[in-house]
Each structure stands twice: as structure tokens, then as C-alpha cells.
Amino acid sequence: MNETLFRRIKDLPSTHLLGTGVPTCAGCGGLQALHQIYDVFGEKTVFVNAAGCMTLLSVYPFTPFRGSWLYTAMGAAPAGAQGIRDALDIQLQKGQIKKEDDLQTVVLTGDGSAYGMGMSATSSAIERGLDFVYICYDNEGYGNTGQQFSEATPHAARTSTSKGPQGYPGYKKDLFSIWAAHKPSYVATVIGAEPLDLARKIEKAKEKQGPRLILALSPCPTGWNYDPKESANIGRLAVKTGIWPLKEYEDGKVVHTKIPHKRLPVEEYLKLQGRFSHLFEPVRNEEILNGIQERVDTYWAEVDEG
Amino acid sequence: MTRKLLTGNGAAAWGARLAQVDYIPAFPITPQTEIIENLGNWIDNEGMPARMTTLESEHSMITAAGAAAATGVRVFSATSSQGLLYAMEMLYTVAGWRAPFVLTNVSRGLAAPITLEPDHNDIMAARDCGFLQIHCADCQEVLDSVLIAYRLGEDERVRLPVIVNLDGFYLSFTREPVEIPTPEAVARFLPPYDPENIRFSASTPISQAVAVLGGTPYSYFRYESHLAAQKAQEVYDEITTEFTEEFGRSREALESYRTDDAEYLFFQIGSFATKAREAVDRLRESGWAIGLIRPRLFRPLPEKHLRKALAGKKGVAVIDQNLAAGRGGVLHSELGSILFSHANMPGILVSFIGGLGGRDISTEEYFEMAMVTREAVNEGQAPPPRLLYTETELREVEKLQAIANMERIELGAKP
Amino acid sequence: MYRIRFHGRGGQGMKTASRILGTAFFLEGLEVQDAPRYGAERRGAPIFAYVRASHSLINERGIIRVPDLVIIADDSLVTVPAAGVLAGASNQTFMLISTSEKATTWSHRLNFTGSILTLPAPVEVEDRMELRFVGATCAGAAARLCGIINQTTLEQAVHDELTGLPSTVVEKNLEKALEGYTLMAEHEGCVKEAAMLSSEQYEIPEWINLPFEEASISAPAIHSSLTSELMPTGLWRTMRPVIDREHCKKCWWICSTSCPDGAINIDADNNPQIDYEHCKGCLTCVTVCPSHAILAIPEHKKPTTEETDS
Hints:
The complex is a heterotrimer. Helix content of chain A is 34%, strand content 15%. The longest helix of chain A has 20 residues, at 286-305. Chain A is an alpha/beta fold. Chain A starts with 28 loop residues before the first helix and ends with a helix. Chain B is α/β, with parallel strands linked by helices. Chain B has two domains: 2-199 and 209-247, Rossmann fold; 254-392, Rossmann fold. Helix content of chain B is 42%, strand content 18%. In chain B, the strands form four sheets. In chain B, strands 10-12-11-14-15-16 form a six-stranded mixed β-sheet, with helices on both faces. A five-stranded mixed β-sheet of chain B has the order 4-5-7-6-13, with helices on both faces. In chain B, strands 1-8 form a two-stranded antiparallel ribbon. In chain B, 54% of the residues are buried. Chain C has helices spanning 14-27, 103-110, 134-146, 151-161, 167-183, 215-218, 254-258, 284-288, and strands at 2-9, 31-38, 46-54, 69-72, 94-99, 115-120, 221-222, 239-243, 264-266, 272-274, 294-298. In chain C, strands 2-3-1-4-5-6 form a six-stranded mixed β-sheet, sandwiched between helices. The termini of chain C are far apart. At the A-C interface, helix 1 and helix 8 of A face helix 7 and helix 8 of C.
């Protein structure tokens, strides 16, 4: 592996490539990750988008991109990336465009598309060995439509379609493993609250070829119900409690890039978010809280063994 | 100049080959699969310099087609029926991108109940999406229409994707003599694709297909797409004039067969319309003043040409091989709306619906449709739409139903 | 028919306000039509809501073109063209603004010939969630201005609209609604139902035949970069982060990396600079600064000479 450019925080870019003025919520964890990612990927990119919060990044006539953008449809983005990639390759081959004009195709979707409707197009794109990057900003629900539960919603979360006393009855789908099972070039989990880890992974992804998939947990003040200024804490705690493992899949192996050795209790993370307040008020739901803790404990026990 | 026996699918594939398409996103479905098999074979074994990518669904296929066209290459794709409808969201979407390409649709009836045989419900479902539509009556027209479609869609005044429609089985798998033009002749007619300012490249950043909020800008974009589709009428006329000059074949927006002195007309699209030609010839022999109007161009529907062709005619038998449940035939509705409120238009349109799921329409049925239309003109009133169906057919279905509802009488079988 | 439009920001309870008022009219026996209109569903972004109320069947629909009463819950919206607070306002329109400035100031500033009334803007509080109740105050004020909604009806409407929410929230909304209702006592009934539009004398719509433009112009594509920077999302801000230069250790720009909007950039002297045109006031930078060198101050207390940004 090449030496990373990003050894310390000070190595991170100090000017930002993605424009300001977009109508995402104040404190959006997804936009935070996207800024950091775009800074590393740069403007020789065409972002191919599926329906979700980030669709509103570009509303006519406003765009925050220095590079290019194509909005497709909710389940369609990887197929759009395929078409663009193939067409650029054809143009390069025919000498119709110069090498300098080539673009990295980057799919940008929320969890709604990545975990669900876009699954078929994603699976197929990886299977074809498409040379592209896939970024999923995961705010654990259908955010743009008002935070209904999606297949990325964690157990017991309150969403606008899981308002019962125990919240969402399902469990968060393991998208990382599903992607990794396809044996793509690279898969990584990241979070904006850990910018150095994120930058190194994006740098790595940039240097590889083939399908490279990034899953970014995106704390969401509007959907998770907390004050925007808590996004930073919540992001850090997601990692420190072990709820959001930072890992990568490469050459057939999964490696954790940060192992929280003294894991904080998951409660520290859950209690800051309104979407889990029913687990604490009016009475503590010990059963669910213990269940969440156990699942996290089991996960890390397996990591230790492996 | 080579004249060969080709199937409709083969002719479509030849059209794409001669048009020197760059990119073919593909997905198989009966009855179009032979098109992509031909092209795949030429790419693999005969040095056709194109790239074919098989996507995992038609929804993805059309997305890839539009995205590649929006990047700046010439794209060809093909589908039918369920596939066309699976892609429906993306048909509207890519048309709105104003990135042109050609999609061949091999018409097939829609589920439910599922069938493999042809009718026009699939292509009619796509009539509002923004794609232009050219409908073919024979295999030669299929090849010619693909070339015309590229000229038409890529014209800077149009810039819309185009569907070339051919009937499943009756054209797709039927061989007819087709003249395959030389590459030189095609090159004279069809220049390389110029994407203008709708393309992706690092030196010209562009945000395409962005979200629009507000009825005012949204209406602007939709109206302009429509105006471009309307403009395609005059562009089509220019192009087909050139086509005739280069290749000698007429490909006018309307085929007007023996219409000059006609009092009555058949109105039909697609391959079965040649049966209407046949019926016209036989009816003329027994003294009828009758002709056929067959639109080749269906989107946009050539309004001016239609009003001119129909002026002074007494009655029209409109034959729809499609059925809008609860309404009737699409051609019938559309023709009515074009003629109404204009002077000197035929007062009688009679609606006939047939051919669904490949059901044949016999020449006798054409004779009878002509009779009914003449009666309607004499009475000054059109009868209700006729769903073409015979006594014999009903008995046939009743026999099938008897089997379907048969009680199980074997011993030991549980009820 | 009463035609009332509320303007506010996401998170200020405009939808609730329109529903409280709508319900109140309904309980008084009128036909009602109320609805919110979103720009984008974002906290802080301008939204408006409207209420129609009439003693006969309401056939009108959609946006209110000529309002009798315009309520502006956040006066920073008045200068935002996209918020459209003045749309359709005539010299017959009443405007109620939640503001710390005087009505006469607004009249002059807007060159407005209708009547302007003011509600005192909520005092900036550390807990920005207080702003959620502005809508209730506005609804209460609107109820009094229309003159036909009595206090018990208003209270009932608040209860009806907020069923299921915690009692503290309901109580707070009630308190604020009654506050608004009381403040408008001397103007009770001054908003009257306007007459219906006449078909004898109307402004002829300026219909055009839209000119055809080629796709190189008329495709929904943006041929420029960074045009989003024209959007002053800084107007969403209610709290402002301010860097204390004495304590800023130029720590390699943790604030800059963490800002979700990329609104903190580093200048030539290695100082982080906040772009106040675009900073939405999420205060992430305040939270992450390791030296606690960034402070949050209420926006309306911002210094008159601002730090310049690049």
C-alpha cells in the first residue's frame, strides 16, 4: 500500500472544493462527509445521483459542483454511472476526448437507494467490474421524505413510520457485507467525525480501479431529532461505542481501521438522540437497550477473535 | 446495393450497424432478442466497433442509454412490452435530459395476462413520455427508420430520443426482402453525432437533469421539450425528402395510399396496415372510393398533414391494435382531437379494435369495416366502438374455459 | 372570505400555526382550507402556509394571490426574494411582523401602503428550540385580528392540533397563542373578509406563445460551476459562531474540516475565516474546536463591524 498523504489532521485540505449555499439542513452529517470526500476526489468527477436528500444539492440554476453532476432516479444511479463510464471509454478510445478530459464517475445515494431500490443496479455494476466509486450517505431512513424507516434503520429507532412504543421492529441491514460479498475492489465505512480516517480511505479508493464503495454514517439532526450542534458528538460516539465500525474490505479481507478498545456503552450514543428517547423516558426499556449493547458486544467479540 | 431476406429484427440490427452506433446497452426480452444477438455477434466476430453492455434490467438499460447519450456518444438499444414498461420511469427521465438516441421497440402485448404475441399497448403506453415514435409496416421500413431516427433525434432543433416500433412476430421474426444501403450512402445521409454542449468532460463542467422547484421553471422545460417534439414534424419532412433523394424510397410522415379521390379511409399504423392496403385494392375493384392513411410518424402526430389528407373525406374506419381500458382505441381518440374544430373534416370516425395479443384481422373484416363506415356516414351517426371478435372465437374460448374450470373427477383426488 | 398567509422558516411551526388558525375558524362554523407550502423541507428554509376561511363553500384553491393578512414570523425573511412575503399585498392588506423593529420602520423600508402591526420578536435564547413556538403566537394574533374567533375556541384549536404531544409542549403553545391573542386586543376585527374577484374588470393575463429554444439552451442543465454560492444560506442562521482569535491555536483546521457546509476556509495567514454569507449556524465548529475558541452568539447580537471573510 502506498504511503498515505494524510498522516495528520494538518494534512487535510484547507480549502474546500464543494460550493456553499446548498439547501441541506444545518448540521447535516451527510454533507459533512461529502465535503471531505469531494476535497480528496476533486473536480474531475461526475457525480451520478439517486433520489434522496442530496438530490437538492443542485436545484436549477444552482449547483455546488466544480465538476459535473447527473441526477438519474431512485434506483438508477449505478446504471447511469455505467452509461457515462462506457461512453467516456468509447470517446477516449476513439480519440474524441483527451485523457485530461476523463472523469471519475461517482455514484452518490442515500441509504434508501443503496440498501433497497438501487440494490439491483449496484449489484450488477459491481458484477460487471464497473470502474466507479459509490458513496452512500447513510442517515438510517428515508430522509428527504420525512424520515420514514428504511432498510438501514437501526432496531428500535423512532421514525415517522415507526412511532410505536418500541420504535422500529426491524434491524439494520448489513450492506457492507453484501457489497463485500461481490468481491469489489474496495469497500469502506467512514464518518465525517473521523476526517483523517475518511481522507485516507478516499485517497485509497481514488488510487484503485474497479468498483469502490464507501458507506458514510451521516448523523441527521432533522431525522434523528437532536440539535445540529450535537452532530459532531454523535458522530464521535457512533465510533467510540462501537456502533459504527470503521473498516475496509480489500483483497478478500476485512480490516478494522479503528478499534475502540475501551468501548463506551451504547447508551452514551443513543441518549443524545430524540429518535431513541422512548428507550429512556418515561421508563428505561432495559430489554431493548441490553439487546442493542449485546449485538454490538457480539460484533466486536468476533472482530477480536478474527 | 444488396437486397437480402432479413427479419425485422435483423433489419433493425443492420440499421444500428450502418448508423455506426458506439454503445449498445442491452437486456433480452422476447421478441427483440435477436436484435442484440445479431449486434453482439458482429461485435464479437465481425469487428463491429461498438461496445455492448448487458444491464440487469430494462430500467437500468435505459438509464445507461440516456447517460451515455448525455455523455456524447451514439447509442442504440432495444426492448419490448414488459421491458418497455419496466423502464417507463426512465423513458420520461432520459427524454427530459434532451440526449438523443434510438430505442427499437418490438411491440408485444402487455400482462396481465402475459403473452408473447404482438399488439400496440406497450408502445401506446409510452406515447406521452417525450420520445418520438416512428412506426414500421415492413422490414425495409425498419432499417430505414433507424437511420432516419438518428438524423431526427440528433438534429439540434429536436434533440430527443426516438423509438422505432415494429410488430413482434409479424415483422420481428418474418423475413422480407430488404435493401441494405452501402456505408457510403449512409454516411452521406447520416453525419456523426454532435453532442453540442450536452456532454460530460472535465473541461466543461455541467450539472445535468437537475432538480427544479417551482411551476414556472418546470413548465418552461416541459413546454420546450414539447415544442421540440412539435418541431420534429418539419424536421422529419426535411429529412425524409433527403432520404428519398439518397435512397429512392418514400418515407413521408403519412403513407397516403389511394387517397386522392377516396371518400372513405382506413386509418391504421404498423405492419397490419399493409392488410388494409390489400383490402383497399379489393374494395376498389368493386367500385369503392376508398384509401388508407398510415402514419409512419406517430409522435409527433403530423397534424397538418392529417388535416390535409382527411379534408373532404366522408368517413374513416380507425383501426386500433391497442385498447385503453374504459376508453377505447388510442388512434381513434387522437384523430378525433385533431380533426374536431376544423372545417371540412370527416364527420364520421368509426372505431374498431382488434389484433390484441396477435389476433389476426382478416381481409373480410376489413371489407365489413368499410361497410359499417359507409352505413355510419349515411346515417350520420357512428356506432359504438367494435371489439373485433367472432362467434367462432367465443366458442373456442368457452371450450378453454370449460377445461380451466373442470372439476377433478379422478378417484381419490381431494376436492 | 378571509385569506391569510403565514411566512416563516422550517422549525418555527408555520404549519402548526396555519392549522391552529384553520381549526379555530372551523370550530367557529366556517368552511376552511389550510395548507403549508414547502420550498425544500429543511430546518431554517423559508416556508409559507395559508388559510382560507369562508361562510360559504370555498372553490378557490392553491396559493393565495391577494392576501388580507400576511403574517411574517421571522423578519429576516422579508429581504429574501424567494420567500415572497410581499406577493400580492395591496394597500388593503394587513401585515403582522414578528420583529424588534418598529412598524413605521418597516413601512418605510418596504414602501408599503397597507397596515403594519408588530409582534415582539422572541428574545434569543440559548435553547434555539424556543423558536418553535413563534407559530403559535402568530396564530393567536391572527385569530384576534380576524375578530370572529373567541378565546375558548382558540384554546380548543390548540388542543385539537397538538393532541398526542407532551403536555409541556401543548402548554407552551397555548401560552404563546394566548399571548398573541392578547397582544392584538386593540386591533380586534380589523382584518375583514375581502370581496371576490370581479369578472367585469380584471387584469388580463399576459399570455405569450412561448418561443421555441433549442436544447442547447432549454435542456435542464447548468453550464456553470458553483452557482450555489449565490444562495445566502447564512440567512437561516439564528446563532452565529465567532472565532476568538486570542484562543484560536490554528490547530490545523479542525473547524474547517468539520463544517458540514464548507463555510470555514483558511486564509493566507493560516487563520480560519467563517463565511457568514453561507454559515447556517449549526455550531458544529463550536463543538469541535479543541481550544473552545469559537463562541456562539445570538445572530441579532452580532457585532456591527463584522469579521471580513475572503
